[in-house]
Design a protein that fits this description.
- This is tRNA-uridine aminocarboxypropyltransferase.
- It holds the Pfam family DTW.
- Keywords: S-adenosyl-L-methionine, Transferase, tRNA processing.
- Its EC number is 2.5.1.25.
- Belongs to the TDD superfamily. DTWD2 family.
- The chain is an alpha/beta fold.
- It folds into 2 domains: 134 residues, Alpha/beta knot (3-Layer(aba) Sandwich), CATH 3.40.1280; 31 residues, no CATH class.
- 35% of the residues lie in helices and 12% in strands.
- It contains 8 helices and 6 strands, in the order E-H-E-H-E-E-H-E-H-E-H-H-H-H.
- Helix 5 packs antiparallel against helix 6.
- The two termini are 35 Å apart.
């Protein structure tokens, strides 16, 4: 896990990499590399190296990333990005019988949006999303809404659906649960979502002056999907 011995998470990782047929391409915003409490390294430690490929950057074109371009044009490739055009992943998994490739963008919501809309390659695969019926266990980092998940959690849920194996989700979430437990034991505080803080009058930061950001906060308070 590459963490100090005192907070080593290796005992919580699977003894052997999980056997999966789905290949993940994690498109990671450069800012995520410098975060101490990031989840992608834990995800990668749970999977075979050829089933979890991490590409770091903001812009991805066919000339610099020919392999990624080929993947994006593959009819079996999916991209996990919520929106009006996205299909429920469970519906896609029912109809899919061949091994798939899934692209997941790793970054804050604004970073992920920037990567998705400014790279035409990522609008070639079929767009899918998860049902927002579970809450994040990544309680040491603030999420926009109660149903926003970390990259590791998204991958865990998605793989369990694609592989039709619920135990995959439990195995991948195990090191995340241990990470949060370690941090809370060493002084970290539980972070409620921005949605929770706003609805309960607990948001203690200045409200944004930017009208677009202010509107987004109003939508969170009114439980409108954004």
């Amino acid at each position: 896990c590459s963490r100090p011995q005192k907070v080593c998470l290796c005992p919580f990782l699977p003894v052997h990499p999980l056997k999966v047929s789905t290949c993940l391409y994690i498109i990671q915003h450069p800012a995520e590399e410098s975060r101490v409490l990031r989840t992608v390294p834990l995800l990668a430690a749970c999977l075979p190296s050829d089933k979890c490929k991490i590409l770091v950057g903001r812009r991805f074109n066919e000339d610099r990333y020919p392999e990624l371009a080929t993947v994006c044009r593959n009819p079996n490739t999916l991209i996990l990005y919520p929106g009006a055009e996205a299909t429920n992943l469970e519906e896609v998994a029912v109809m899919s019988s061949s091994p798939s490739v899934m692209i997941i963008i790793d970054g804050t919501w604004s970073q992920a949006k920037d990567i998705f809309y400014k790279n035409s390659l990522f609008r070639l695969p079929k767009q899918v999303q998860l049902k927002p019926n579970i809450s994040s266990q990544y309680v040491i980092r603030t999420q926009p809404t109660n149903t926003c998940l970390s990259t590791l959690e998204c991958a865990a849920v998605a793989l369990s659906i694609m592989e039709k194996n619920k135990s995959i989700q439990e195995t991948i979430l195990h090191p995340l649960q241990a990470l949060c437990s370690f941090q809370l034991q060493h002084g970290a505080q539980i972070h409620h979502s921005k949605e929770h803080l706003l609805k309960n009058g607990l948001y203690d930061k200045p409200m944004p002056k930017n009208k677009r950001k202010l509107r987004r906060m109003e939508l969170l308070v009114n439980n409108v999907k954004i």
